[in-house]
């Protein structure tokens, strides 16, 4: 993860101020923005960049950029708020559109790559640290007991000293939950309006993970902010998603024997593929599952027998760990599902995928900073009544939800206002996501369909070509479409076709009225362009890509999108859903 260091902003601004005083003629439309007055906003800098390169703090240079005006600002909607935003404005290649972008985890930083992608495509682009940077947060940590000398925790940015994140800062929690992205959007549009002398013709938002939660929050709370919204792997049911992180860590640490050893996630994945690949519409040579819901793999088939010992097989305790991994986060008293389990086929030893191989090796659960916001520093104390090791999934849930759910969970299924003004929502999620269960996005989409049909039954959901199909599905797909991505990890990567452009189809849907039925996805050799390993169509849900059984399985033309059977989709209990 990125390390962050303070820039000499004051010295830089002093230099520019000196130049401006001695050479007024050097002022540009960009530098004039330094004096822009906006409510609850401080413009920190406004500078032309014509070098083609930008160097983010502590990171490698971003190259191939058109000339642009870089504006940095701080938004202060409350006395305890400090939301950093950046707006990048193309100076000669603006396409007339505005693009809001999201981030990941607890953010706390500016996601410069997202700004660069938007800029290269001609958008006036903006991004925010979500207001958590002022509390010392970074994408993975916003409250912890400290890294405890754990090498992996240190590598991923866990500070040495304990911290409580946003504990005692309710306004900053609001900023993180929904306010930062909305105000970033409002101020970003105002800055673009002044710079170009006209308002953007259309506005779009694109984000994955926390960015996906930002996306759904915008559609639900601020439906007029954007015309088109792209939401990837949204962390929309945030409090219960973070509880799943606690549950998974406790599961693997219940006893020393429950820990999954290095290499065993790969062993399990290979067994999953051997049993299930090609049975769900995909090709028999695939190294991923097209629809994991068709797979009934039980890890007990890998139970050690005879003279076999781990890591070549699983002990009975490790079988239990994996069975609970797939089963989901469960209330131990009433058996209710709090958050869906992991899908078969997402097993990986790659720690960058942020799955179990990463999470179980941390000294405390990944992303558990959110609970420090409720319980304070004591959440990291082993002797405290409620901590990361003894969190009670029957008694402790209500306290967290009472304090955070309304602010953080983007679970409303009423998108009436967004739809009424012509808004379009395009969602996507990797089927092999080991961090956010992929069926969560399906659950949200089905809840939208249910809202349109006043509780439509899933049994009547599908159209098999013998009738008009489900009217509620048709109504939902007129403004929201979901694409599941076989073999993709969390937002990117994975063994499947994991690179695709979903923003262009969204723009075409908004501006030309052409709704996407398929999106072409590519798997590059070693995930590095330009050599192509395979292409595959992503199909609008509930359809899946079915292999014709004859042609080249690495060619998208060998697949047809067909309506899938009504597969079981694990859902949380109603009070924890959708």
UniProtKB/TrEMBL annotation:
Record-given protein name: Feruloyl esterase
Membrane-spanning intervals of the chain: none
Keywords: Calcium, Disulfide bond, Hydrolase, Metal-binding, Serine esterase, Signal
Signal sequence bounds: 1-27
Taxonomic lineage: Bacteria, Pseudomonadati, Pseudomonadota, Alphaproteobacteria, Hyphomicrobiales
Cross-referenced Pfam families: Tannase
UniProt similarity note: Belongs to the tannase family.
Native species: Bradyrhizobium stylosanthis
SUPFAM superfamilies in UniProt: alpha/beta-Hydrolases
One annotated GO molecular function: metal ion binding
InterPro entries: AB_hydrolase_fold (IPR029058), Tannase/feruloyl_esterase (IPR011118)
